Amino acid sequence: MNVKDFDFYLPEEQIAQDPLENRSDSRLMVLHRENGEIEHKIFRDITGYLKKGDCLVINNTKVLPARLIGVKEETGAKIELLLLKRRENDIWETLVKPGRKAKKGAKISFGDGLLKGEIIDEVEEGNRLVQFSYEGIFEEILDKLGQMPLPPYITHQLKDKNRYQTVYAKEEGSAAAPTAGLHFTKELLQQIEEMGVTIAHVTLHVGLGTFRPVKVENVLEHHMHSEFYHIEEEEAKKINDTKRNGGRVIAVGTTSTRTLESATDDNGILQAKSGDTDIFIYPGYKFKMIDGLITNFHLPQSTLLMLVSAFAGREHVLAAYGAAVKEGYRFFSFGDAMFLI
Length: 341
Prior knowledge:
This protein is of the alpha/beta class. It has two domains: 3-63 and 160-340, QueA-like (3-Layer(aba) Sandwich), CATH 3.40.1780; 67-145, Thrombin, subunit H (Beta Barrel), CATH 2.40.10. Helices cover 18% and strands 27% of the residues. The protein has six helices and 17 strands. The protein has a nine-stranded mixed β-sheet. A six-stranded antiparallel beta barrel has the order 5-6-7-10-9-8. β6 (78-88) and β7 form a beta hairpin. α5 packs across α6.
């Protein structure tokens, strides 16, 4: 399976640079998996495709304002730091730019010394371990000094930090947003619940590996990044009961999909558990849990496009993407949505 099998032409002007004023005003393409039929709707029309007894599974991770701009104490040189993962207490794995200035022992000051960091080690892929020191509460300082770690293809400044969070974001720990959920408003979710649709929460902290390009020709040789997930007993029960009662489990986003498929056993029962997953879903994969998928339009040759192709068929998906380009859909994080049923 060649990575070029998942390529398509995308004009640069169709990469959404800003979120819409109203989240649920985005467009919605409905793709019927059996025959490849396509419908063009508005996102709030999704209620017409959900049924009583369904279960909508959302990822309640919260994006950290993880991009910090500081200066090297010894020289005053500007250094950009991106928090990737908390290792322990005040030690974080980070991505530092420029890396050549980030040697072991280097000290960095943020916000005129409100936050200080010392590089204590270099780890895999050139990432650095940074020990932070401060007075007060780390999360409050980060909220004051940090910026949202927007994907590299978004060049506009984000005016409102909350627009890169879902309305149900709760568990802090992501380096990127679970963007399929950005289309939901609290009012729309309430309307969906009133229809008799169960809403279940899972957590997967999205890593920057979600933006990492596939650099090998053979898809099977790609090394998938690992991400932490957690499923509560009560939420697993909601999802398992839905399956048992003949309802559909509909994942909001590829992150919810990867969580569900990672924690479902061979008997199709979802386990309440925590752990790291590096599951790689591509065509040929047999889905164990999900019956529907709400997702955004993804990058050419990306692992996310491969996952969507595994669920709805590569030919159907690429034909739908071709139609999306032709119809002027907006792509990627702040773009429009698909519902694959």
